[in-house]
């Protein structure tokens, strides 16, 4: 008898334990080599555990259990014979001559599995927000798993709201164990409040110049680069320019030393079904608008799908968070340690403002900069935010290193 022990891989240097989020197979099931058998939650990201060989699996750590990195999660009996009637998913083929609608029962790996009725993280979030229960959804994902498309299909076709927990009238309480990621976020937030001298300064930005620029070029930008032209690239470029002028805002405290960075690794806060994650755009000061938009889209998608890596979440020097997408008018963002500053974006609202002695209507966004007063003084924080405002209200300055086209031509 030959048995293979599968151990929990290390998600990163500083992580010593993880949580088995869920098993995608049952104890005693036949698994194929490279088949994903479990998902693992660390305090930074979600990983997939794939079978290292084909055989019968014996689960040693249950779903929801905290397990040390390097500990045995399961054992695969590689000498076990493949059960009759269970065929490898890799061998399932449908000939082109066969009608798509024809039933092919003999190629079904398993009619039922533990996954039937369970939902992916994104699907689960959508169900919770819309009061949909798993019994109302027909899962079409792997082994009956409920995916985002299944929930959208139910919402499009309508569903019986009388069976929803929101409308049942029952006073039900549910208890769920905090995920490793959610618990780590809680610990870090409390630590920030207790160990930093956090202060917030505010300003407002007239977004009309950027909105006009986007309206003029967004079609051609999309056609040329294959990605939309959003506000985030403007804010990222403006911040990277301002960080160069005010290096303390881009620094961090390390014991009794100040560490300055000559580069801008800007974290972009992303809301995911498992909590807030901050993937990092490396060397933002060297990237074009299209490269920033493409990088943000890729990282945000990976974060929401639970496929972000630890390396993609570490090492930021400054963070931007956009509460405006949820309708926030104003907030005081909390620091993302060990960084010493974070910029908060908010929703855009048409407001009456005075320009050249006249009252006009302009799309205004309130912005907030939270910073650690131990490292950053009021002069630097306010000047940094004013510079960001100036660049956003004059987007041509972003393109010419903080100067107007005329100043560049005149060598000023």
Write a structural description.
The protein is of the alpha+beta class and 412 residues long. It has nine helices and 19 strands. Strands 9, 12, 15, 16, 17, 18 and 19 form a seven-stranded mixed sheet that branches. A four-stranded antiparallel sheet has the order 1-8-6-3, with no helix packed on it. Strands 5-4-2-7 form a four-stranded antiparallel sheet, with no helix packed on it. The termini are far apart.
Per CATH, the architecture of the largest domain is 2-Layer Sandwich
N- to C-terminal separation?
79 Å
C-alpha-based Rg, rounded: 26 Å
Number of helices: 9
Q: What is the CATH superfamily classification of the largest domain?
A: Chloramphenicol acetyltransferase-like domain
What is the secondary structure topology, with strand pairs?
Blueprint: E1 3-7, E2 17-23, E3 30-31, E4 36-41, E5 46-50, E6 55-59, E7 66-68, E8 72-77, H1 121-130, H2 148-157, H3 180-195, E9 198-206, H4 208-225, H5 231-245, E10 252-254, E11 257-259, E12 266-268, E13 270-272, E14 275-277, E15 280-281, H6 289-304, E16 318-322, E17 341-345, E18 348-355, E19 358-372, H7 378-393, H8 395-399, H9 405-410
Parallel strand pairs: 12-16, 16-17
Antiparallel strand pairs: 1-8, 2-4, 2-7, 3-6, 4-5, 6-8, 9-19, 10-11, 12-15, 13-14, 17-19, 18-19
Helix pairs in contact: 1-2, 5-6, 5-7
């Amino acid at each position: 008898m030959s048995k293979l022990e599968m151990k929990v891989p290390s998600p990163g240097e500083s992580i010593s334990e993880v949580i088995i989020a869920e098993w995608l197979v049952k104890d005693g099931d036949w698994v194929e080599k490279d088949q994903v058998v479990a998902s693992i939650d660390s305090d930074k990201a979600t990983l997939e555990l794939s079978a290292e060989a084909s055989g019968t699996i014996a689960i040693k750590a249950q779903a929801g259990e905290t397990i040390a990195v390097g500990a045995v999660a399961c054992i695969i009996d590689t000498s076990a014979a493949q059960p009759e009637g269970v065929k490898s998913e890799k061998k399932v083929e449908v000939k082109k001559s066969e009608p798509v609608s024809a039933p092919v029962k003999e190629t079904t790996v398993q009619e039922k599995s533990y996954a039937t009725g369970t939902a992916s993280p994104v699907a689960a979030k959508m169900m919770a927000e819309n009061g949909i229960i798993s019994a109302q959804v027909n899962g079409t994902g792997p082994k009956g798993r409920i995916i985002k498309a299944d929930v959208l299909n139910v919402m499009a076709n309508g569903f019986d709201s009388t069976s929803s927990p929101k409308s049942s009238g029952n006073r039900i309480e549910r208890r769920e164990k905090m995920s490793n990621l959610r618990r780590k976020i809680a610990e870090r937030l409390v630590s920030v409040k207790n160990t930093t001298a956090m202060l917030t300064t505010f300003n407002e930005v007239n977004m009309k110049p950027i909105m006009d620029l986007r309206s003029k070029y967004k079609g051609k930008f999309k056609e040329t680069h294959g990605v939309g032209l959003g506000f985030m690239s403007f804010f990222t470029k403006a911040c990277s320019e301002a960080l160069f002028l005010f290096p303390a805002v881009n620094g961090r405290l390390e014991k009794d030393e100040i560490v300055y960075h000559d580069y801008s690794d800007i974290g972009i806060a992303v809301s995911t079904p498992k909590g807030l994650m901050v993937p990092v755009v490396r060397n933002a000061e060297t990237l074009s608008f299209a490269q920033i938009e493409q990088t943000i889209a890729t990282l945000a998608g990976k974060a929401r799908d639970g496929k972000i890596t630890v390396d993609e979440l570490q090492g930021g020097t400054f963070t931007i968070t956009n509460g405006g997408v949820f309708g926030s008018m104003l907030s005081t963002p909390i620091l993302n340690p060990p960084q010493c500053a974070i910029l908060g974006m908010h929703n855009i609202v048409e407001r009456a403002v005075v320009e050249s002695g006249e009252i006009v209507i302009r799309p205004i966004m309130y912005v907030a900069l939270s910073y650690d007063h131990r490292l950053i003084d009021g002069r630097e924080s306010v000047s940094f935010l004013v510079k960001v405002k100036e660049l956003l209200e004059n987007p041509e300055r972003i393109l010419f290193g903080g100067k107007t086209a005329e100043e560049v031509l005149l060598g000023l």
